[in-house]
Amino acid sequence: MDIFYNLIKCLVFSIYWLLIASITFRVLIKRRSIPSSMSWLLIVYIIPLIGISIWFFFGELYLGKRQKKIANRIWSISNKWLNELRSCTYIFQMNNSEVATSLFQLCKHRQGIAGIKSNKLKLLTNTKKTMQILIRDIYLARKNIEMVFYIWKPGGIADDVAIALIDSAKRGIHCRLMLDSAGSVEFFQSPWVEIMRESGIQIVEALKVSILRVFLRRIDVRQHRKIVLIDNYITYSGSMNLVDPYLFKKSSGVGQWIDLMTRIEGPIASTIGIIYSCDWEIETGFKILPPLPNKNMIKNESNQNSSIQVIASGPGFPENMIHQALLTAIYSARYELIMTTPYLVPSEDLLHAICTAAQRGVKVSIIIPLYHDSILVKWASRVFFSELLEAGVNIYQFKKGLLHSKSILVDQQLSLIGTVNLDMRSLWLNFEITLVIDDSNFGRNLLCIHNQYISDSYLLDKKVWSMRAYWTRVLEKIFYFLSPLL
């Protein structure tokens, strides 16, 4: 009996250290940031049972086998389409403003195409009005409607969007809807799924969450994009989920979510369409390449001096692209940099770039929510405040709801708007999208919105912040330890 007991003990002991050694090897061999690597090693060694479990589910970036295979070859298949797109020289902007040149050169080098001109842009700041405009566009659609959202929550005006889609599908419009499985769990449990499918709408549950799938791929890789594409000409993108702002998370006590969307008409729809095509193929295995833009789409002669790039991230897309774009934009700033984000847990490189911008004389403002839906992120973000304030960064805490907008404005000329939060999950993990816009008129409009946010915010005082309670500093450090894993 003692021999059997000792054998079992040795076996368990050997498996335990084999797991520890294996995880250590995986952490060291993969070129992660040093803080991220240290966090993983510490959590595995200090609380091994919990650490090993977390690593098993969240430590490696991977999709299911079929999805991974498609993702790895997606851009090589799309190269033929991209080459054909390059031949449409009439849509490309050859010159950019001084502040935008570096970022557009980076995008061209890594994604293969220059910025696209002749687009009509409109900023939308009110979620209810945005949905009303979207419903109008859905009813006016002539050919196709494609959508992808992280969250679709039934109820209120979101149901009006569903009705509009159903009516459009019944009159022969080809409608495709892709929703994240975790974010839109209430939608997939509702009757709308069957009603929509019966009307002819194709619905895909992206990155399905189930007990069996947790052993096949990471469960926290999420489809976080928000895209609407209508007739391959009108497109929407930004931070808004498909929810009624008066009903969404009403019980959380943070107020209405404040979002920012961009509605665009023009040839940029083709590049957004290829991103949607890639996402659709990763989930379904079927390719739905968008048509190439034709000269009839070039209707906006007044916007010949502006241009747009689209940056997509996630498995199968150019690695670290959004992180590089953010760094390039920040280092391009000469006199003003304004950033809005609901989640402020930047990488060390981003933190250094923001502080350096302030220290070299750029007026840097970061606008974040005063009230938050995530306790973890709220406390983790606080640890960065001291360093930012010391560098001269203005930190504004928005008090009229949960500021969910994700935007950057550089020198009132270069704008970045999309789904990307300033946290590790958006930068390294999820499927995200960002619009890079080189347009002074658009920049001035975004500045007006930022100034409105600032007028509805508290300015964090450096002296008051330095006098905060000791126990809060300890709590901040604990959550900072976990920040590379958030």
TrEMBL record:
SUPFAM superfamilies: Phospholipase D/nuclease. It is found in: Cell membrane. This is Cardiolipin synthase A. It comes from Buchnera aphidicola. The active site is at H224, K226, D231, H404, K406, D411. GO terms for cellular component: plasma membrane. SMART domains: PLDc. GO terms for molecular function: cardiolipin synthase activity. Belongs to the phospholipase D family. Cardiolipin synthase subfamily. ClsA sub-subfamily.
